[in-house]
Amino acid sequence: MNHEFYFPYNVKAALKNDPPGEWMPALPEGCIRLSSGYPASELVPSNGIKAAVSTLLEEEQDLPLHYLGSPKMPRLKQQIQNRLAERGMKVQEEELLITAGACQAIDLIARALLDEKVVVAVEAPTYMEALEIFRNYTNQIISIPVDEQGLRVDEFASVLAERKRLGLVLPRILYTIPTFQNPTGTTMNEQRRMRLLELSREFDFLILEDDAYGELTFDVSPLSLKALDREGRVIHVGSLSKITAPGMRIGWIAAERPFITAFAWFKKDLDHSFAQSAMAVFLESIDLEERLKKLKGVYQRKCTLLIQSLEKFFPTSVTWYVPKGGYFVWVRVPGVDTSALLPLALSAKVSYVPGKYFFSNQDEGIEYLRLSYSFESEEQIEKGVQILGNLISNHLKNHLS
Ligand SMILES: Cc1ncc(COP(=O)(O)O)c(C=O)c1O
């Protein structure tokens, strides 16, 4: 059978890209996982969720296991609405859609707003799974660089002006992770946030704001683009993955009503009413503010230790950005192809993500790597960075001599 025959052209085009998840090969037993962008086991509230599930089933028996889920589900929406309001984002019930994680949110947005003629602008580097999603819908992706202060909004303005002058199609959506970006850990400063919103009016595009790490600040979180938006141009995506449990798959989209209607149209009931019901009960059983305080303390300590270890064990030619929140440190290793080095690192039982996977044009990321401090203990972080530092020093010595 000619299986290809059955795929429409857009699926054939998408299947030519790297397969999803290709950025991380299987990890050896006992590997120190500086690649993993998810919480450590002890930070996942398994007992709290277990208690919430048993409360739910005791109180409601089979109800939460039906398509419609528990009558408590609207309370999850209410909790998220309250939390968003506390962060300066006042959204009505009809302006909020609960999704199976931020990833489903991005996929729904892409599905409703993109086709192969639509140009999407992304940060370079950016979250690789978002890139994978966009590539499933369009090949017209333009990349705008990020520096220590986040997206280079000035550069974006020049690209927009130049495309307009040349009569090229303008991007209709910009995807940005303005706060504690994945992979760079950087945060867009306020001046750039304001300028970006101005540009969105001037050049008539939407901003897809991915705020997956927005709550995980070591200091104060900046106001989100959504909180600063006066025109309804920002489609805000959030997630409970990084602050509760990623496997529960709870995320959301906050946006103007017509957009939410379209996203809900495609979502149907493809998310998990049971997980949402359990999360509603779990969130009611905890003090989220306290939980966040604890998480921020843990991540800040781990981040500080990772940075100190880089200073101690990495050659002086290596540079990085110091994050103010989130999960990641973005490292530049001049003269080293970080994908070529990965097999050696894995044999030495340390993992990282090579930089190239975070770029639409992979050549741009050759000398970079992403380290995560979310998963491993402080002891393992220090050990892992030491092993990597030795590997890099030896590699540079061998290649310079
Ligand atoms: C920037 C960014 N957005 C979204 C996600 C995925 O979030 P979720 O687990 O809610 O799908 C991640 C997870 O790594 C991320 O880094």
TrEMBL record:
Residues 31-386 form the Aminotransferase class I/classII large domain. InterPro entries: Aminotransferase_I/II_large, Class-I_PLP-dep_aminotransf, PyrdxlP-dep_Trfase, PyrdxlP-dep_Trfase_major, PyrdxlP-dep_Trfase_small. GO terms for molecular function: pyridoxal phosphate binding; transaminase activity. Its cofactor is pyridoxal 5'-phosphate. One of its GO terms (biological process) is alpha-amino acid metabolic process. Keywords: Aminotransferase, Pyridoxal phosphate, Transferase. This is Aminotransferase.
